[in-house]
Amino acid sequence: MTLTFHSNLSRDLSLLLNVADDYDVIIQVGENQNTKEFHAHSIILRARSSYFKNAFSNNWIIKKDNMIMFNKPNVTPNIFEMILRYIYTGEVDLTEQSGENILDLIVVSDELLFEELYEHVQDYLIKKQSNWIYENITLVLHTVFKFENCKLKAYCLESICEDPQPLISSGTFPSLDKDILLSLLKRDDLEIKEIILWDCLIKWGIEQTPDLGSNKEEWNEENYEELKKTLNQFIPLIRFVGISRTDFFDKVNPYKAIIPSHIYEEIEKFYNENILPTLPLRTGKIKSNIIKPKLVNIISNWIDKRDAMSTRTENDPLYKFELIYHSNRVIDNKTFKEKCKGTIKSLVLIKVRNSDQIFGGYSSIGFCSIDDNLRTNELLPFYQSSDNFIFSFENNEDTQNMKIGRVLRYSDAMADYNRTAFNFGWGVFYMEDNKIFMNNHNTYETIFDKSTTYIIDEIETFIVTNQ
């Protein structure tokens, strides 16, 4: 049996930090009027940090009177005090720290290679100071955007995609870093009207182009050429298919000189000949662990009874998928029915164990507690729908080998049966606790090669509404 006494160890090392009379390192941090000298022990710093282990190597080390001298002018005393306490005790108290200080701590912990601290401080800022992040999202993004595998960066980008208005209406938008703007324009889940995005891009481009006044009437050919250079990377990312003909000729066409000729020709073919351009409409957001956003466009097309790979335009509905149930642990009929009841358009996604395959189903009448007006048999729990379908993907981003089976016998589209969580076609595709069962019946088009049973690894259910 091994006994551990971490609390005593932390306490004793804390005393060593506070009364460092045998220190061998002097660290000067900060600059100008905000500086402070810290005393520490090289053996502890080396043991706890690969950064200090390298910094105190023979190639880097500076000694004075047998004392290691080290300067960190880019770190404030307040932040370094937290870092030093973390090194000695494994503790950091963030409860009284401002959002700015916590953000600085993230930057410093990344520089000093404290991976554990780097991850946990990000979690704290996201969970405890989300309002501060939202109010200072441009500052936060500019600070962490270059970091690899940064959950704070991902959180900011997802927040902006969900609600871009605060960013684009802020005074800081015209100074937004070009790489951040490029990253946002590439996303399919950016929930904004494309004509508004175009207007914002033009304003950003004008601000980013030196000596270009805001009065377009005074621009000459050289001015347009400079703006074209500024926006060269960005214009191909605008989804012109989402801009109406009226808005195009009122707001886009005046800037024809900055649009590459091949893109402008694509747009003209779209408006005049209904030939769709390269980039499809943005699909909106789905918060799914099971599928990638690119599959949302396929599912949306299936809901509209279109070909899977059809390009969606501004005239097509943009669907919102609201997650109402998710589980990758205890999965049972009762919980599913409690969370997913009611006659409402619903989508279920299922990842099965030991496979990359994704299975799912869409029901325009829901899965359970269905309106009795849709019941087709007084004795049996069958409900009618002409819109239901089941489907499969080979993996979470499959756009080539997916299968769809639409309902054939409308009167038996859904069964609301007490032994199953959901039941498409009375046994074609149904869930019973932690398993799904698939069979080839004539209620739906066939997508299964044979009768099969899978254990559910993860399940998600969404309410589907028009935005």
UniProtKB/TrEMBL annotation:
Domain BTB: 23-96
Segments passing through the bilayer: none
InterPro entries: BTB-POZ/Galectin-3-binding, BTB/POZ_dom, SKP1/BTB/POZ_sf
Pfam families associated with the record: BTB
Name recorded for this polypeptide: BTB domain-containing protein
Taxonomic source organism: Rhizophagus clarus
